[in-house]
Amino acid sequence: MATSTSTSAAAEPAPELPAPESLTERQLRGADCVRCETRLNNATAVDFGPREVDAHGIVVNWFPRACTGCAS
Fold first, then answer.
1. Which of 33, 35, 50, 58 gives 67 a disulfide partner, CB atoms 3.0 to 4.6 angstroms apart?
2. Which of 56, 54, 29, 51 is nearest to 40 (CA)?
3. List of the chain residues with pLDDT < 50
4. Beta carbons of 17 and 48 less than 8 angstroms apart
5. Is 49 helix (H, G, I), strand (E, B) or coil?
6. Angle at 59 between CA 58 and CA 62, to 5 degrees
7. d(CA 55, CA 26)
8. What is the pLDDT of residue 8?
């Protein structure tokens, strides 16, 4: 599985995330927390940025987000 993230000198390391294969459709598109499945909205979500994953030979994006409790 290929993943990519953008980095800069001031950026913090990317958080350890669950494997995309273990997530629900709502978690993959950022509607629910990737850790506890809490429903998210733009005011409550911590965005980890889009990631690329190989899905059966096709590279697709997934959008991991977490609730503030799970993001820290």
1. 33
2. 29
3. 1-9
4. yes
5. coil
6. 125
7. 17
8. 39
